[in-house]
Amino acid sequence: MVIVIAIAGGKRLAEELEPQIEKMLQEAEGADAADATLWGESQPRGLPPELADAARKKDGIKTPAQLPKADTESTVMPNKEGGYAPNYTPVAAPDGVANFIVDCDVIPGPNEHAELLPSVDRIEENFGRKPGSVAADKAFGTGPNLEGMELREVEFYTPVESSAPQEGSPAKREDPRRPVPEGDWPKLPRNDKKKLAKCCFTYDQTADKYFCPMGKELPYRETKKYDSSQGQRVLRIYGCQDCGSCPLAKECLDPKAKRGRTITRDGHEPARERMHAKMQTEEGKKTYNRRMHIGETPFAIIKGILEVRRFLLRGLEKVRTEWRWVCTAYNLKKLIAALAALRAAGGEMPVSLRG
């Protein structure tokens, strides 16, 4: 069973919506002008643009805040063909044996990772059994998903970066209190800011502290909470108290850092490390490598053969109904092909399907 995502909509939809949007904007401007005549200047509605944009970024939406006029339950998101349009995100879970779609749904935004656990629960409810295993792309490897799948005792496979030092890295050493030899400093992993990556620091669970590549301690400093697309995150902050004289300071510290190097850790870190280790095994690699074919095949058939590339209805519930019919049509096509192959091979049709 694989969770896959696609975004509906396209350039043609944006072109078709443009005249409707322009007309509605003109009507809205006329209404605002009439209100201003009667009541004076109207007050701004909703969040200021900068706050609205920040809220969208928190939800994983990179486009500026926009309100779809034709379908207010949709979200303006990027099209794969380019540009932006009011879109929904259809989700489908094909099984890895016959490639039938065993669960589907539609969400109004881009945060498809939140649909993994509800999908697994629906499959168990509808089929009377849990999936044997689940493979999903990197977006689904969130802390809540990793621990949720462990609690459900379902084998899960998804790429996850581990923050622990890895084999082959000079940061992985028997005694983290001993500094990494100077000759190995260039081999230490860097992050996207070209500074020493988090995986250069070793966590001591017993002492609840980190050790840097120079063997210095980063004890617990404080806890911070903030909201994200994954829900509320609780981060424990660990900080070094002696970075000023460190010979690796230029390679480690961000120029804006005022309190030395800090490392964050949340409660999902052990689950990430377990998943990372699983994905390094031959079984993990083999299972995950099947995901692309299994996951993309239904969408290729739906788009290329059934020629369904955009939704015809508006409103989340109507779009969900439309998507369920599309997935049902796909499954019926698969079933008819399977029965035809069975007949051609001289097999008997199952009793439950005989007229």
What's the helix and strand layout?
Blueprint: E1 4-5, H1 11-39, H2 49-58, E2 75-78, E3 84-87, E4 89-94, E5 101-107, H3 116-127, E6 133-135, H4 143-151, E7 155-157, E8 202-204, E9 209-211, E10 217-228, E11 231-239, H5 249-252, E12 262-265, H6 269-279, H7 282-289, H8 291-304, H9 316-344
Parallel strand pairs: 6-7
Antiparallel strand pairs: 1-4, 2-3, 4-5, 8-9, 9-10, 10-11, 11-12
Walk me through what this model shows.
- With 355 residues, the protein is α+β, with helices and mostly antiparallel strands.
- The protein has two domains: 1-159 and 281-355, no CATH class; 182-267, no CATH class.
- Helix content is 35%, strand content 17%.
- It has nine helices and twelve strands.
- The strands form four sheets. It has a five-stranded antiparallel beta sheet, with no helix packed on it. It has a three-stranded antiparallel beta sheet with strand order 1-4-5, with helices on both faces. Strands 2-3 form a two-stranded antiparallel ribbon.
- A hairpin with a 6-residue loop joins β4 (89-94) and β5.
- It is globular, with a radius of gyration of 26 Å.
- Residues 1-11 and 41-47 have low confidence and may be disordered.
